[in-house]
Amino acid sequence: GPNLWESKLDRCVDYGHTFSKLLEMVPGADIMHGEAVNVDGFFCVVMSHLRGYIDMDTVIRIFNCMKSLSLPTNSPDLTPELAWQSCKDAIEHRHGEQRIPLITEIGDSICASDITQEELNRAIDMMAKFDH
Prior knowledge:
The chain has five helices and two strands, in the order ααααββα. It has helices at 20-25, 33-50, 56-68, 80-93, 117-127; strands at 100-105, 108-112. A hairpin with a 2-residue loop joins β1 (100-105) and β2 (108-112). The radius of gyration is 14 Å and the shape is globular.
């Protein structure tokens, strides 16, 4: 439901907390909270790139940083179905909007509320091309 104490719900602190929630809840999933948040974060980096907000050099820079810290950047449980359900869950808990943080450059973001199933599918396909 709505957060009665906050008026600004487009929050960059939600970065990594849209898809990670359901990733952690997959029965038998062996993923800790921080790992799921990182997978979610990289997924949003890929969507940011597909929308033209960041270039591939920035994607690779972020990917290499995550890998250098031994953080996972993908999960077999990040399926199109889970991603779309996560968007629906976000709408329910973010006052009727997706409000998914996408980066526009390192250190800056916007919140998107118009992400489609097709966009999620393209991002999942693109993530498979990285050497996780």
